[in-house]
Amino acid sequence: MSAIGVDTESFKFGEWHAAGERHIRESGLAFTFLRPNSFMQNFINYFPPRDGVIYLPWGNGRASFVDTRDIATAAAEVLITRDHEGKTYTLTGPAALGIAEVANILSEAAGREINYVDLPESAARDGMLQAGLPQWQVDALMELHAINKQNLWSTVTSDIEEVSGKPPIEFAQFARDHAEKFRAS
Question: Which residue in 13, 21, 30, 61 could disulfide with 148, CB within 3.0 to 4.6 Å?
Fold first, then answer.
């Protein structure tokens, strides 16, 4: 598993993934690269609503969030068949969403209001540093936020359906499946 954008964008996490892909290609081993976009599950683990608010420095940026269950399904498929050797798949959800749209979908699923606050980049950086994240990680995460703010990862692909034979999970389904987590946040 790699990451979306490693072949077209220059960002710290992407550079690390691109180096891994390069080593695997040069090794001569059979491979299939899965390059997922930002995970839907990040709204549970990394930027969940706090007191009914999602705080991110994304402006009106959009991303084609992907459910990790779809990534697992794609990974299982490429592991059990040889039809995928030497291929690269960019795994996305079925739609590009802004964080305000995400907040509305989560609100509906949770049965309570969840809002989006476009956090100033300086406040996001300061908050991560105050939480104890190391500078290198804060810098890398701020790069990802900037990429998303610029809509660079809003492309939607059909790769999940191509690999698994079924369409990717919609964000609304993800939200309903995990509604209890958003009711309590």
Answer: 61
The Cα 145–Cα 128 span in angstroms is 13
3-class SS of residue 124:
helix
Find out whether 158 and 70 touch, Cβ atoms under 8 Å.
no
Q: Is the pTM of this model over 0.70?
A: yes
pLDDT: which is higher, 8 or 40: 40
Helices 121-130 and 135-149: crossing angle in degrees, nearest 10, is 150
Query: What is residue 52's DSSP assignment?
Result: T
The CATH number of 12-183 is: 3.40.50.720
Residues 6+ apart with CB under 8 A from 126: none
Tokens for 124, please give them.
């996001």
- CB 140: neighbour CB atoms within 10 A? 17
> Residue type at 66?
V
What does each C-alpha distance from 11 to 59, 97, 121 come to in angstroms? 19, 22, 17
What pLDDT sits at residue 76?
Answer: 96
Q: Residue 44 and residue 10: Cα distance in Å, rounded?
A: 27
List, for residues 61-120, the tens digit of each pLDDT value. 999 999 999 999 999 999 998 899 999 999 999 999 999 999 999 999 999 999 999 999
